[in-house]
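Below is a filled-in request sheet from our internal design queue. Each sheet records the structural input a requester submitted and the sequence that came back. We keep these sheets so that new team members can see what a complete request looks like end to end.

REQUESTER: design group, bay 2
PRIORITY: normal
MODE: inverse folding
CHAIN LENGTH: 463
BACKBONE (tokenized):
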């Protein structure tokens, strides 16, 4: 689909059980070659792939924008965090290793960090190229092969990544792409030659993936949904807090897992903050996402647009006040008349029990709530089954650290929101998932440790 035009541009055949098996077998063959390469050799190939992504950045960003609807300005940032991820793991590939342990009598042991084998990546539609890069870079750096299934809504850009890996010199089949939806994903998770599944998507699908993988005792990484709190204290730099709240809610049309959609504002600055955030939200340029100055494009598809608008209707019925936006939008350009556009929405008078405050909307809808004390806001911020991200704006640095130490979230931002340095681990607490992407720790999620115990003397048998 092209969300900008509301039209189909290409169709892909879904991979069935046979095609999934072919992909896994060719990944398995490539794994035999790749696992024998030294870290330095793998690093060189990943660096070359990163270079090609940088070189083709505009082309990849354009494809991403056409298929997903996000502004090309943002898509370029996604592509940056993609090649940066490849560079980061290329840098770590050569230094992966185990340890040497001295034992009594001159005996010793050592550990080897070894790849898992064929890993499966399953992606969501909001960051197609970035998700494929964040999964494949650490997987390949550790010596694994990967079969990746993008979302059927955004099947295109992952194919460019496969092309780039091949051009950079990975063995044929090392990074394979299969297309399809739930059925294809299930075949992948159940395949006996698959060693691990890394999934990005919703909580309900994450549960199913975990169940399927458990049948083969396969480890899983789950990057799931969220309903993250953003806490704005009255001593903050208000301009930065407003910018932070916009970053926390309106990137990629609000279709972002870690968005800080529950914006808690301390009562003393509630009116001033709300007035400014509404003013800035009304200024967001909606339109053709391929134009340089557009900052919000169409949502992913019609049914998702209706789903998001439904949340706004329900919020009104439950007593929230629409302070701006929340309507269907038809851009002036006639070619965009069938696109899935809506105006970004700020909801005031929100209460903790409202549906818009409790459920992940995955659209451009910010809910503003007021609070009085630190203890109260912490209690309310943590009162959710999700735990992906959280943010705090304050000039009091002691309070900032005290608050993030209490927040039940895998990623916490102090005086910023939704930045993604690849050097830092990303992932959730509670029902937002487990395992991490990015950062040094992710090596542990794509490798296994072998212990070798070496006897230097005679065997002392108990028999
Ligand atoms: N935590 C993160 O890093 C992160 C990042 C992006 C999106 N998300 C979450 O993803 C969700 C939106 O994405 P979505 O609508 O594509 O999610 P989704 O769960 O509907 O689909 C995700 C992927 O899973 C596949 N799939 C669906 N059913 C399956 C099954 N039974 N077995 C195997 N695979 C199956 C889909 O085809 C798709 O590729 C939101 O909840 C969002 O918060 C999380
Ligand atoms: N840039 C990270 C976004 C991942 C969640 O949707």
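RETURNED SEQUENCE:
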């Amino acid at each position: 689909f092209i969300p900008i035009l509301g039209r189909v541009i290409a169709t892909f055949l879904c991979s069935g059980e046979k095609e999934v098996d072919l992909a896994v077998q060719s990944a398995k063959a490539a794994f035999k070659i790749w696992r024998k390469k030294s870290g330095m050799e793998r690093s060189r190939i990943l660096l070359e792939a990163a270079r090609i992504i940088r070189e083709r950045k505009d082309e990849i960003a354009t494809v991403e924008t056409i298929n997903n609807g996000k502004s090309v300005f943002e898509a370029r940032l996604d592509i940056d965090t993609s090649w940066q991820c490849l560079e980061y793991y290329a840098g770590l590939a050569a230094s992966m290793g185990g340890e040497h342990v001295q034992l009594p009598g001159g005996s010793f042991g050592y550990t080897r960090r070894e790849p898992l084998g064929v890993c499966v990546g399953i992606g969501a539609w909001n960051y197609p190229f970035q998700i494929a890069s964040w999964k494949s870079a650490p997987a390949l750096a550790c010596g694994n092969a990967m079969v990746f299934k993008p979302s059927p809504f955004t099947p295109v850009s992952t194919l460019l990544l496969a092309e780039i890996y091949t051009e950079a010199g990975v063995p044929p089949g090392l990074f394979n792409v299969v297309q399809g939806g739930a059925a294809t994903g299930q075949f992948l998770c159940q395949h006996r030659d698959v060693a691990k599944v890394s999934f990005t998507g919703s909580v309900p699908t994450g549960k199913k993936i975990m169940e399927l993988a458990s049948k083969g005792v396969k480890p899983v990484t789950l990057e799931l949904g969220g309903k993250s709190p953003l806490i704005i204290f009255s001593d903050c730099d208000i301009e930065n807090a407003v910018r932070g709240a916009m970053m926390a809610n309106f990137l990629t049309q609000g279709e972002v897992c870690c968005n800080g959609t529950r914006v808690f504002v301390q009562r003393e600055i509630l009116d001033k903050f709300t007035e400014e955030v509404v003013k800035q939200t009304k200024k967001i340029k909606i339109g053709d996402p391929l134009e340089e100055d557009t900052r919000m494009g169409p949502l992913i598809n019609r049914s998702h647009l209706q789903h998001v608008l439904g949340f706004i209707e329900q919020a009104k019925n439950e007593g929230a006040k629409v302070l701006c936006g929340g309507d269907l939008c038809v851009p002036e350009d006639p070619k965009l008349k069938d696109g899935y556009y809506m105006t970004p929405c700020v909801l005031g008078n929100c209460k903790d029990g409202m549906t818009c405050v409790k459920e992940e909307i995955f659209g451009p809808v910010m809910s503003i709530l007021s609070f009085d004390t630190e203890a109260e806001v912490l209690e309310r911020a943590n009162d959710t089954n999700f735990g992906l991200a959280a943010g705090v704006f304050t000039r009091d640095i002691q309070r900032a650290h005290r608050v993030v130490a209490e927040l039940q979230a895998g990623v916490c931002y102090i005086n910023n929101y939704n930045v993604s340095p690849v050097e830092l681990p990303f992932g959730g607490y509670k029902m937002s998932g487990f395992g991490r992407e990015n950062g040094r720790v992710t090596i542990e999620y794509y490798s296994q440790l072998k212990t070798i115990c070496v006897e230097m003397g005679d065997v002392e048998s108990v028999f």
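SHEET NOTES:
- The chain has two domains: 17-225+432-452, 229-414.
- The domain at 17-225+432-452 is CATH 3.40.605.10 (Aldehyde Dehydrogenase; Chain A, domain 1).
FILED BY: M.R.
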